[in-house]
Write a structure and sequence with these properties.
Strand content: 25-35%
CATH topology: Aminopeptidase
CATH class: Alpha Beta
Order of helices and strands: HEEHHHEEEHEHEEHE
Low-confidence stretches: 1-31, 222-231
CATH architecture: 3-Layer(aba) Sandwich
Structural class: alpha+beta
Radius of gyration: 16 Å
CATH superfamily: Gcn5-related N-acetyltransferase (GNAT)
Length: 231
């Protein structure tokens, strides 16, 4: 996987491929405030994004701690208990209105194979950082692109973000390509900004602005489908 996955404070990532357009239903006015009380379920063809559950911990530990996935991310928890604590932390942070974390669940699966995270970078949540991590067995499956579009829509429409930032190690060719593919713009290079394996790596800073996102959607059409909520 790629991007920085700080399983106690920040971001994560992985994967790519083209998505077929799906129908979008606009969220009700209440949705924008209700995410703090309960995270909605977001769906597209072949994928569901929902709140993490404690039962996701074993699958996440198996999928997100491999050498392939952890190469360009901050070290994830190393124990089942560590992932369970992380999942509990995500719920507390969401309830506090500072952060959201979606489990990535492909059709036919019961537990998460990855996650998307969005955290505030200012007190209003107007600027946010996002990241994602997906098990390597699902790279190239289209899950990243479909999930990313759902998360970006949710960030702009429900949370009220106007600028989404992502950071990816320059050496992470796959991760940078995935961000470029969904329309993120590289604004610069953050030199020696990420410590991994005793070495400081340069990172690319990628952004998606709300106005740019909606202009592009006017061209290629809406794709997100908003569902209900789950406990």
């Amino acid at each position: 996987m790629d991007l920085e996955l700080t399983l106690q404070t920040t971001t994560a990532m992985k994967s790519t491929t083209h998505v077929q357009p799906a129908v979008m239903q606009q969220p009700s006015p209440a949705t924008a405030s209700d995410w703090r009380e309960q995270l909605p379920v977001l769906t597209a063809s072949g994928i569901t994004l929902r709140e993490l559950r404690t039962s996701d911990a074993p699958a996440l530990m198996a999928l997100l701690t491999t050498e392939e996935v952890t190469r360009f991310i901050s070290p994830p928890p190393t124990t089942l208990e560590g992932f369970e604590r992380f999942i509990a932390w995500t719920v507390r942070e969401r309830q506090a209105g500072r952060y959201v974390c979606f489990a990535v669940v492909p059709d036919g699966y019961e537990t998460a194979v990855g996650l998307f995270q969005v955290r505030q970078l200012d007190p209003t949540f107007g600027t946010a950082e996002w990241g994602f991590a997906i098990g390597s067995a699902f790279w190239g499956s289209g899950l990243f692109t479909k999930g990313a579009e759902l998360v970006v829509d949710f960030s702009f429409e429900a949370i009220g973000v106007h600028r989404l930032e992502a950071r990816a190690a320059i050496e992470n060719v796959r991760g940078n390509g995935a961000l470029r593919k969904i329309g993120a713009v590289q604004e610069g290079t953050l030199r020696k900004s990420f410590l991994r394996g005793g070495k400081y790596l340069d990172q690319a800073l990628w952004t998606i602005l709300e106005d740019d996102w909606y202009r592009s959607k006017a061209v290629w059409g809406a794709k997100a489908v908003w569902g209900g909520t789950v406990n």
